[in-house]
Amino acid sequence: MTAQIINGKEIAAKKRIEIAEKVAALKSQGVTPGLAVILVGNNHASRTYVTSKEKACQELGMNSLLIEMSEDIQEEELLAKIEELNEDSTIHGILVQLPIPKHIDESKVIETISPLKDVDGFHPINIGRMMTGQNAFLPCTPYGIMVLLEETGIAIAGKNVVVVGRSNIVGKPVGQLFLNQHATVTYCHSKTKDLKLHTKQADILVAAVGIPNFIKAEHVKEGAVVIDVGINRNEAGKLCGDVAFDEVSEKAGYITPVPKGVGPMTITMLMYNTLKSAAETINRY
Ligand code: NAD
């Protein structure tokens, strides 16, 4: 079997058109969605991500505000800035680009962002609301994965889903979203014994490990849906995922490539969450 490619770039572009239309409608009601991004320090990768987020805001007609803070900023200053943005009615989404310097408590930073503006979906209140199936900001990469499957017409209820990786931003929440949609979910991680035993049961296999080409054909059931979250560099410095694409795509039914798979969905869902937050202010006030 040769897998069908799930084209994240195309699906993201379609979603962005829908978002831009809704932004325009909201603007005609007097509300322009605004996203504030705080960048602490001068991490090259973080700066690239932040620039992409600003660019996406501009393309979709949203306002973006970039706040740059120096590497040695005190925790209180960062928390005070977040509190100021919490009170700013022109800002509907706030995100602090991670990672932040070690001397600042990441949990404190996340919990200072108002849950009503937590468009990354990292605040414990949003995580709890997601777990209990209530209205919440869903974390962007996991949410993007669910949209990819929905747009591809892949049913989830009753499927065996295996998630490799249990980070708070990808592995854990994506498993929860699958559970919310009635899948049977197994989590695998660095302490899992006999990984293959589990992954071979997967109708849908999600790889969020951060190791280039970690998932091989031998891990995959014939015809499975394989979602590759990884963004890595191989020895040649080329972008690659966690899945050995060439061999796995000979066996899987569907597969996401890297690049142009999950990646483009993450910022798209961030834009969606910012739009959602802005739209909800109309009902709130
Ligand atoms: P992480 O390092 O926080 O977590 C990695 C997980 O992999 C851990 O839970 C660990 O238990 C598991 N793991 C490590 N070695 C393992 C092994 N030998 N067997 C089984 N499990 C093992 O990483 P993360 O933040 O979840 O990111 C994972 C990957 O996804 C990275 O490549 C990252 O760059 C990428 N990522 C992509 C996007 C996107 O937008 N596409 C967003 C976030 C992360």
From TrEMBL:
<dbReference type="InterPro" id="IPR036291">
    <property type="entry name" value="NAD(P)-bd_dom_sf"/>
</dbReference>
<comment type="pathway">
    <text>One-carbon metabolism; tetrahydrofolate interconversion.</text>
</comment>
<keyword id="KW-0521">NADP</keyword>
<keyword id="KW-0368">Histidine biosynthesis</keyword>
<feature type="domain" description="Tetrahydrofolate dehydrogenase/cyclohydrolase catalytic">
    <location>
        <begin position="6"/>
        <end position="120"/>
    </location>
</feature>
<keyword id="KW-0028">Amino-acid biosynthesis</keyword>
<dbReference type="InterPro" id="IPR020631">
    <property type="entry name" value="THF_DH/CycHdrlase_NAD-bd_dom"/>
</dbReference>
<feature type="domain" description="Tetrahydrofolate dehydrogenase/cyclohydrolase NAD(P)-binding">
    <location>
        <begin position="139"/>
        <end position="280"/>
    </location>
</feature>
<keyword id="KW-0554">One-carbon metabolism</keyword>
<dbReference type="InterPro" id="IPR020630">
    <property type="entry name" value="THF_DH/CycHdrlase_cat_dom"/>
</dbReference>
<comment type="function">
    <text>Catalyzes the oxidation of 5,10-methylenetetrahydrofolate to 5,10-methenyltetrahydrofolate and then the hydrolysis of 5,10-methenyltetrahydrofolate to 10-formyltetrahydrofolate.</text>
</comment>
<keyword id="KW-0511">Multifunctional enzyme</keyword>
<keyword id="KW-0486">Methionine biosynthesis</keyword>
<comment type="subunit">
    <text>Homodimer.</text>
</comment>
<keyword id="KW-0658">Purine biosynthesis</keyword>
<dbReference type="InterPro" id="IPR000672">
    <property type="entry name" value="THF_DH/CycHdrlase"/>
</dbReference>
<dbReference type="Pfam" id="PF02882">
    <property type="entry name" value="THF_DHG_CYH_C"/>
</dbReference>
<keyword id="KW-0560">Oxidoreductase</keyword>
<dbReference type="InterPro" id="IPR020867">
    <property type="entry name" value="THF_DH/CycHdrlase_CS"/>
</dbReference>
<dbReference type="Pfam" id="PF00763">
    <property type="entry name" value="THF_DHG_CYH"/>
</dbReference>
<keyword id="KW-0378">Hydrolase</keyword>
<feature type="binding site">
    <location>
        <position position="231"/>
    </location>
    <ligand>
        <name>NADP(+)</name>
    </ligand>
</feature>
<comment type="similarity">
    <text>Belongs to the tetrahydrofolate dehydrogenase/cyclohydrolase family.</text>
</comment>
<dbReference type="InterPro" id="IPR046346">
    <property type="entry name" value="Aminoacid_DH-like_N_sf"/>
</dbReference>
<feature type="binding site">
    <location>
        <begin position="165"/>
        <end position="167"/>
    </location>
    <ligand>
        <name>NADP(+)</name>
    </ligand>
</feature>
<protein>
    <recommendedName>
        <fullName>Bifunctional protein FolD</fullName>
        <ecNumber>1.5.1.5</ecNumber>
        <ecNumber>3.5.4.9</ecNumber>
    </recommendedName>
</protein>
